[in-house]
């Protein structure tokens, strides 16, 4: 009985947390931790964002984009697939209609206002200063938010799948606790597997957050 509790309690917790993370992805209440609205409020908070954008800058995401785009022309760069953070933080929004020079240097055009594009405050926020770029833009915040939500959902899905697999495995192994040494070895292997999964999840959460 004790062995059953030792195995099933952490698996139940893992499964519940996984469902919460996956389910929260589709919730809109700002009071539910992990929901899109809750994350958006946290990311758009100025104090939080000052810390976040410094972390983004320190990772060198935009510098890496420049090094990968040195030989690209305007057309090639515009057709290049960028990560949400690269697209939101390292270049001005497409609605600004700026002229491409390189990945992080764009020139404003003296053209008549195009009514097909609504006014975007990010166009005024953008600067070619390599330490600023579009780190203060709403597009940068949205790019970070999109990346975070994707990783959050992936973590939740991983927890649910692994919990289900281990629950099925343990339901077969636990009844034979008292059958013999061979069965006990199988149960011990299950315990080691559980420990490995928890350590892996802990490291994954540490990397993401």
Sequence-ordered SSE layout with sheet pairings:
Layout: H1 2-24, H2 36-44, H3 46-59, H4 61-68, H5 74-78, H6 84-89, E1 99-102, E2 105-107, H7 122-125, H8 138-173, H9 181-208
Antiparallel strand pairs: 1-2
Helix pairs in contact: 1-8, 2-8, 8-9
Let me know the average pLDDT: 74
Amount of beta strand: under 5%
Which spans of ≥5 residues are poorly predicted at pLDDT below 50?
1-5
Oligomer: single chain
What about the largest sheet? 2 strands, antiparallel
Q: Name the shape in a single word.
A: elongated
Overall strand count? 2
How would you explain this protein's 3D organization?
The protein has 209 residues and is mainly alpha-helical. It has a domain at 60-137. The protein is 64% helix and 3% strand. The protein is built from nine helices and two strands; from the N terminus they run ααααααββααα. It has helices at residues 2-24, 36-44, 46-59, 61-68, 74-78, 84-89, 122-125, 138-173, 181-208; strands at residues 99-102, 105-107. The chain has a two-stranded antiparallel ribbon with strand order 1-2. A hairpin with a 2-residue loop joins β1 and β2. α8 (138-173) packs antiparallel against α9 (181-208). The longest helix is centred in the last third of the chain and has 36 residues, at 138-173. It is elongated. The two termini are 36 Å apart.
């Amino acid at each position: 009985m004790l062995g059953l509790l030792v195995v099933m309690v952490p698996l139940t917790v893992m499964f519940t947390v996984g469902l919460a993370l996956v389910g929260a992805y589709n919730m809109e209440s700002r009071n539910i931790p992990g929901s899109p609205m809750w994350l958006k409020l946290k990311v758009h908070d100025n104090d939080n964002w000052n810390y976040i954008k410094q972390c983004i800058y320190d990772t060198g995401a935009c510098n890496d984009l420049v090094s990968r785009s040195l030989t690209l022309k305007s057309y090639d760069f515009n057709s290049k697939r960028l990560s949400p953070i690269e697209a939101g933080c390292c270049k001005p929004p497409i609605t600004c209609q700026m002229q491409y020079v390189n990945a992080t240097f764009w020139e404003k055009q003296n053209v008549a206002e195009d009514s097909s594009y609504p006014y975007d405050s990010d166009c005024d926020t953008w600067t070619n200063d390599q330490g600023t770029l579009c780190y203060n833009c709403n597009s940068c915040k949205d790019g970070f938010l999109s990346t975070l939500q994707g990783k959050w959902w992936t973590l939740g899905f991983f927890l649910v799948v692994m919990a289900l697999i281990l629950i099925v495995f343990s339901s077969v192994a636990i009844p034979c606790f008292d059958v013999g040494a061979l069965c006990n070895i199988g149960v011990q292997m299950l315990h080691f597997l559980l420990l490995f999964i928890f350590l892996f999840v802990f490291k994954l959460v540490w990397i993401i957050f």
